[in-house]
Design brief:
CATH topology: Spore Coat Polysaccharide Biosynthesis Protein SpsA, Chain A
Number of strands: 6
Largest sheet: 4 strands, parallel
Number of helices: 4
Strand content: 15-25%
Number of domains: 1
Length: 131
């Protein structure tokens, strides 16, 4: 059985935010708090450790208490670059990636992913809405 303690959480906040006018999406506020903080609070309770993948405002992201990592590739190479950086830094056999703009992340997401990975014996599982 895969347990959440075998999972590193990777919060992806390294995008260029082109659709947001270039503003750092993770630092935009919802109800007076940065989006990334909402996600971080929900993810931290579900995994062994959390990393934040960010390519700018790294001091701001670090102030939330998680380790911040940057892409190995320059120029906002996309979420796969953040994913690669997370895989290189994680010290657990599993990595759960979530976007910084998902403040209503399910509180049991990682447990459900662990259950699915165990049942299917798959190397990777993806959350979806059934459609």
């Amino acid at each position: 059985m895969i347990t959440p303690q075998a999972v590193t959480g990777l919060l992806l906040a390294g995008g260029g935010s082109r659709r947001m006018g270039g503003e750092d999406k993770g630092l935009l506020e919802l109800a007076g708090r940065p989006l990334v903080l909402w996600v971080l609070e929900r993810l931290t309770t579900q995994v062994a450790t959390v990393l934040i993948s960010a390519n700018r405002n790294t001091a701001s992201y670090a102030s939330f208490g998680a380790e911040v990592i940057v892409d190995r590739y320059s120029g906002f190479a996309g979420p796969l670059a953040g994913f690669a950086a997370g895989l290189a830094r994680a010290h657990t056999p599993w990595l759960a990636t979530v976007p910084c703009d998902s403040p209503f992340l399910p509180r049991d997401l990682v447990a459900r992913l662990c259950t699915a990975a165990t049942a299917s014996q798959a190397d990777a599982v993806v959350a979806h809405d059934g459609e």
